[in-house]
């Protein structure tokens, strides 16, 4: 358990740094890093300077010149676990900028909220993680092992030029555990993430003039029937794994149900002709308990009996998670009770994050950040106090997980 005086000292230190943390958020927002095209050079320099100002040496690595990632090592000088602190530097596009009530490219502080593109996903978490890294460096006599700070590029499109590149080049970055600043929203702790299955659906039909069409025979009619049946898979649940039984509920969390989104549909070449070919692409997100193999079988069963319809897997991977009884999860529970006087509320994230790359290699990984709702959008923001709480939770979890004897 973390001594009360340690909790009080760290929370007091973070409170004293409030203005510095908000200023760092402002610098991060003012450094555009929209993906695509994913240019993170400016924001990476902001992070490198922030670490240097706090006494931490860092380096930048990249496989694409415009997509640097920032790495820093903090070593206690004593043997122990290797903990990775992970955030990403790129942001989603702002959407319709005219719909924003606050400036997109500068931080605005209003009623306890910090507005600006990326504050929810995830520049607020970047500021909190930089703060945590600095606090842990200053308190290294209280923990054992080592910490690697990673602020990566190319995450929001799940690209290959950020975390994937670093793990290929430096397998040791897998470490023993990872804390990711990717929040699932609503102050919940994400134990894992849904799996993904992308499928292509193809249909064919006879050629001819549109005046000669028969009901349900054109490729467009067949694809319409197919995607309607696939859409009906929404809301299905699987058998919840035993180690996640604590998340069972009569009203399942969205992270525990299957979603099936028909993303694209294309058919025909001219309105006056029967469509001879049609294609749809579907994105299924899979909860724990439904594997990619299970989901593909569900899609096959759904379209069975529709003449000429064929499906093909484009890509996919199963859901992954860290158990509530894992050492890192227990450490977070201790930190949560110390910082907010309550245990964490567990969730399964809906979209993927880089944390899934670590879990797929057997590394325990948790996601928590100041993202206030399910996803960032118009008027992106983070609550100012929550950014500070994240800094405290990251720091306290690391101290508990790496606790010195």
TrEMBL record:
<keyword id="KW-0479">Metal-binding</keyword>
<dbReference type="GO" id="GO:0016787">
    <property type="term" value="F:hydrolase activity"/>
</dbReference>
<dbReference type="Pfam" id="PF07687">
    <property type="entry name" value="M20_dimer"/>
</dbReference>
<dbReference type="Pfam" id="PF01546">
    <property type="entry name" value="Peptidase_M20"/>
</dbReference>
<dbReference type="GO" id="GO:0046872">
    <property type="term" value="F:metal ion binding"/>
</dbReference>
<protein>
    <submittedName>
        <fullName>M20 family peptidase</fullName>
    </submittedName>
</protein>
<keyword id="KW-0378">Hydrolase</keyword>
<dbReference type="InterPro" id="IPR002933">
    <property type="entry name" value="Peptidase_M20"/>
</dbReference>
<feature type="domain" description="Peptidase M20 dimerisation">
    <location>
        <begin position="192"/>
        <end position="303"/>
    </location>
</feature>
<dbReference type="InterPro" id="IPR011650">
    <property type="entry name" value="Peptidase_M20_dimer"/>
</dbReference>
<dbReference type="InterPro" id="IPR036264">
    <property type="entry name" value="Bact_exopeptidase_dim_dom"/>
</dbReference>
<dbReference type="InterPro" id="IPR050072">
    <property type="entry name" value="Peptidase_M20A"/>
</dbReference>
């Amino acid at each position: 358990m973390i001594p009360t005086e340690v909790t009080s000292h760290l929370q007091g230190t973070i409170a004293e740094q409030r203005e510095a943390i908000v200023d760092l958020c402002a610098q991060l927002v003012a450094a555009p890093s929209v993906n695509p095209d994913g240019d993170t050079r400016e924001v990476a320099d902001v992070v490198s300077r922030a670490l240097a100002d706090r006494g931490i040496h860092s380096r930048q690595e990249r496989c694409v010149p415009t997509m640097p990632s920032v790495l820093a090592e903090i070593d206690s000088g004593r043997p122990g676990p290797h903990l990775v602190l992970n955030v990403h530097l790129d942001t989603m596009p702002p959407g319709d900028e005219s719909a924003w009530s606050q400036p997109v490219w500068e931080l605005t502080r209003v009623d306890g909220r910090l507005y600006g593109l990326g504050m929810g996903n995830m520049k607020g978490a970047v500021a909190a993680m930089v703060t945590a890294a600095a606090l842990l460096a200053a308190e290294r006599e209280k923990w054992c092992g080592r910490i690697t700070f990673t602020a990566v590029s190319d995450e929001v499109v799940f690209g290959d030029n950020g975390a994937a590149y670093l793990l290929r080049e430096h397998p040791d970055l897998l470490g023993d555990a990872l804390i990711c600043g990717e929040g699932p929203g609503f102050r919940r702790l994400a134990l894992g993430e849904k799996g993904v299955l992308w499928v292509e659906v193809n249909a064919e039909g006879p050629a001819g003039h549109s005046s000669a069409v028969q009901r349900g025979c054109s490729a467009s009619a067949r694809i319409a029937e197919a995607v309607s049946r696939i859409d009906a898979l929404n809301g299905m649940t699987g058998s919840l794994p035993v180690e996640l039984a604590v998340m069972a509920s009569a009203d399942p969390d969205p992270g525990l149900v299957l979603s099936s989104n028909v993303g694209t549909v294309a058919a025909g070449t001219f309105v006056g002709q029967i469509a001879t070919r049609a294609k749809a692409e579907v994105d299924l997100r899979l909860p724990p308990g439904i594997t990619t193999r299970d989901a593909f079988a569900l899609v096959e069963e759904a379209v069975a009996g529709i003449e000429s319809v064929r499906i093909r897997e484009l890509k996919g991977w199963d859901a992954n998670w860290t158990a509530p009884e894992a050492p890192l999860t227990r450490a977070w529970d201790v930190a949560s009770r110390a910082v907010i006087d309550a245990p964490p509320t567990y969730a399964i994230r809906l979209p993927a994050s880089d944390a899934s790359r670590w879990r797929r290699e057997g590394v325990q990984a948790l996601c928590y950040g100041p993202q206030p709702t399910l996803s960032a959008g118009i008027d992106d923001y983070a609550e100012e106090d929550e950014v500070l709480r994240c800094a405290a939770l990251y720091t306290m979890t690391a101290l508990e997980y790496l606790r010195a004897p």
